[in-house]
Each structure stands twice: as C-alpha cells, then as structure tokens.
Amino acid sequence: MGIPLFLCPKRYIGINKKTIMFDFFLNSGDSREQAGEADSKMDFRLTEQQRELQAAAREFARAELPDIASQLERDNRPPSRDLVRRYAGMGFLGINAPAELGGLGLGSVDALIVLEEFAKISSAVAFPIFESMVGPVRAVEHFAGQALKDRVVPQVCSGEMIVAVAMSEPDAGSALTDLKTRGVLDGDVVTLNGTKRWCSGAGMRTPTSSTAVCPTIPARKASAPCWSRRTRLG
Known about the structure:
The protein is an alpha+beta fold. The chain has helices at 17-27, 31-38, 48-64, 66-75, 81-89, 108-121, 123-131, 136-143, 146-157, and strands at 162-166, 182-186, 189-193, 208-212, 220-222, 229-232.
C-alpha cells in the first residue's frame, strides 16, 4: 500500500521529497513491466502511485495557487523564491532528475503528471517545475562534467537556482536548426556571437544559470544571456 498521506482530505499536507521517493520506490517496482509481459498491448493507464501523485499535485495546486497565479499575472512577476522553495520541499522539483543529484529519480511521465496539474492553474506558477525537469537542466545532467552537474542540478532541485535558456532569435523560434548564433570553443572558453530575442527564466529572483543555444557547438553553460561575450566554462 502507498503512503496514506496522499489519501487524507488534505493530501498535500505533510508531503515531502522523502515521502514521494519512499512511496514510489516501494510500490512502482516492475508492475508495469510485468503487465507488459502478460499483455503485449501498450498500457497508457496511470499506475496507482501515479494517480496518487497526480491527486496530490492537483489538490495542492487548486487549493494554494489560483490567487498567487492571478497576482503574478497581474503584476507580470515570476514566482517568489519562497514559493519555489516550497515546491522543492514538497518534492515537486526535479522529479525526473537522478536521486544522487537531488531529484526523485522518477520518470518523465511522473514529472509531467505534476507539471500538468500546475499548468492547469497558470503557466506563471508552473514555470519553475517545467524548468526543473526539461531543457537546459537535463542538458547539464546528461552532457556536463561531474563538477558542473554537482553545482547546478542539486540547486535546481532544491529551489535555489533557476535554469534559464535563450533560443529564440529575430529570424528563428525554437527550431534549433534555424539558429544563427555561433559559438566557438577555445580551451575552457566559449565565444558566443549572435542575437537572441529573450532569455526565458533570466528574470527569476534566484541565482540563475543561463544557457545560450547555438548550433555550432554543444550548448554549454554561460554566465549571462549576452552575445559576443567570452564566457568561461564552469
């Protein structure tokens, strides 16, 4: 059986990262794989534990976030640092990041289940969760050296850092093959040269790790969304 905290009237009260990890690692197991062995048809149904996670995220989001989202949208401001830290304390950040880097070590479906419930309220309150599970933070996780992984990913999962990304350009959107910004790697220095329209996440009131995306070299950590700037790699 799962942890009963998910089943009480206020499911989100008392939920934290350890609770979610314990519940999923005890109960998820190979249940879906075993079902697949018995039936070759693809099963799109959520597991019991995923439904509990979905219900917890939904109840928290509906109860706590509508007023906050309205204020953020009205004032054109990002979520407060305290709110992002609260997300982290409840286990809603870095759900699909490795446990050794501060995440929950669950799958992308689990992460997107939570994201969906927050995004139903507003993208304004869902943004920190989105940036903790996809995009630049995953690039750092998969391609960066261990020192950079250890510096960035745990801070994102704890709500102490937001990862920002600059993709869109005057003549290109998120189609990365159309980008004109160029990067040249020279030892431990990357020289970027180009123009970006914005840097998503750079306005958050937290320490920010910005990533400029350019097609010439693999995306590397940049200290700010500036172009024609020599940026030393971390």
